[in-house]
Design goal:
The protein has 290 residues and is an alpha+beta fold. The protein folds into two domains: 180 residues, no CATH class; 76 residues, no CATH class. The longest helix is centred in the middle third of the chain and has 39 residues. It is elongated.
Length: 290
């Protein structure tokens, strides 16, 4: 069936376009959205990872009795082996934080009891056990809280949003597969007469299916590449204009170079998916009609 023609021309000559080619445009739009949603999911995943890593060795010591006792408490904590840093939280900062919940008037009240707060950073891999023992001896009323415990709700929300983003990526993949299925079936119906003639002169189902597979793979690759380029361009433009958009509190990029590579490979994955869907669709159509 190739007749010595260059590969890739057979489907164009035997299955000429009849009407506008909507499949590449639809796949391009879906790929554009997929890249943006995928970037959001990767950014959230990296944000959760960096926040968790940054908080892993961070602890907070709380002691009732007034914020003015924070300095002596910090001095005690600094003597513990493995403590890299112990910083007392200023009273003004504590009142500023409480103002968000209690209101500015109550937060400034001298009658409001304020605890002593000390932010503690342990060396990587150091156990908090010595710190607990020291506090039990010298400040038995103090509470030792880990940052991961305090940031638990935030990390849970980040992971939930990450899961939603990746679920949307799968939904976009399903929509792309449906678009390829409809486009393949529409092309088959439009060229049914040609298919019957080719089948009658000896073309096999595999050869006929290959025509549609090449066509849909090409259209998915063209549309997906255009959509991915537009999506990545928008992401990079946003990154350049507002660099803080893809950065987080841990001062690390939420999108790494590897993530950009993964997003750039989505059109190839989309083309492979289109080929598989087209193969299954045309096989079912040929079995049903020939």
């Amino acid at each position: 069936m190739s007749g010595g023609r260059p590969a890739g021309l057979g489907d164009q000559l035997l299955l000429p376009d009849r009407g506008p080619r909507l499949a590449p445009w639809l796949i391009g739009v879906l790929m554009f959205v997929t890249v943006l949603v995928g970037a959001a999911g990767l950014a959230l995943a990296n944000s959760a990872r960096l926040v968790a890593a940054g908080a892993e060795q961070r602890w907070s010591v709380q002691l009732a009795g007034g914020a003015r006792t924070a300095d002596p408490l910090a001095a005690t904590v600094r003597k513990v082996p493995g403590v890299v840093e112990a910083t007392p939280v200023p009273e003004a900062e504590i009142r500023s934080l409480l103002a968000q919940w209690l209101g500015p008037d109550l937060a400034r009240s001298s009658a409001l009891p304020l605890p002593a707060l000390v932010d503690v950073t342990l060396a990587p891999g150091v156990s908090p056990a010595p710190l607990r023992q020291t506090l039990a001896r010298q400040a038995p009323n103090a509470r030792l809280l880990s940052y991961p415990e305090q940031l638990g709700p935030l990390l849970d929300n980040l992971r939930l949003l990450q899961g939603i983003a990746f679920a949307l990526v799968l939904l976009m993949a399903g929509a792309s597969a449906a678009a390829v299925m409809l486009a393949t079936r529409s092309a088959y119906d439009a060229h049914r007469g040609t298919i019957e003639v080719l089948h009658g002169i000896g073309a096999t189902d595999r050869q006929l299916g290959a025509l549609f597979q090449r066509r849909m793979t090409r259209e998915a690759l063209i549309g997906g590449t255009i959509g991915a380029i537009l999506g990545l361009s928008l992401i990079l433009l946003t990154l350049l204009v507002t660099g803080a958009f893809f950065s987080i509190a841990a001062n690390g990029p939420a999108l790494r170079p590897l993530d950009i590579v993964v997003l750039g490979l989505l059109p190839i994955a989309g083309a492979i998916l289109a080929r598989l869907v087209a193969r299954g669709t045309i096989k079912r159509a040929l079995r049903a009609t020939l």
